[in-house]
Automatic annotation (TrEMBL):
Protein name per Swiss-Prot or TrEMBL: Dehydratase
Record domain MaoC-like: where: 21-104
Lineage, opening ranks: Bacteria, Pseudomonadati, Pseudomonadota, Gammaproteobacteria, Nevskiales
Pfam families the UniProt entry points to: MaoC_dehydratas
InterPro entries: HotDog_dom_sf, MaoC-like_dom
Amino acid sequence: MTKDFKNVQVGEPLPELRLPPVDRTMLALFAGASGDHVPLHIDTDFARRAGMPDVFAHGMLGMAWVGRLVTQWAPQRALRSFTVRFVAITHLGNAPVLSGKVVEILERNGERCARLDVQMANQFGQLKIQGDAIVALD
C-alpha cells in the first residue's frame, strides 16, 4: 500500500517499530557489515576494563534503526535530511522501540515537506536516541 502524502497532517504518528533485544550476535554482525570494530561493542573484557558492565550497541546501529523507521513511512528517495543525537547507551538486552510523528509541514527548496521528530527508546521507555528528519511529500 502506498502512503497518500497529500493528506499528511501535523501530529500524525509514524507506525511504531519494535525490534528484538540487542544481543552479541547482532553487534558482531553489525561490526562486520559496517567495519566498526571498536572493542567497546564486541569485546566484553575490553568494555569492562573501560568501566562498562559489558559491550553495548554501536550508536550508528541505533541511527540505522531510526532511519529504517523513517524509510518505512516514506520512500528513501524522499528523505532530504536526517540527524540524530545520542542520548544514552543501548545495552545488551535492550529491545529498541522506535517512534515518530509529523511536527511541521513546510516548503523547502520548492518542495512540500514534513519535518519529523523521531526517537528510539528501550522496552522500559528509556530514551536512547532523538532525531529529526525532513521528508519530501510531493
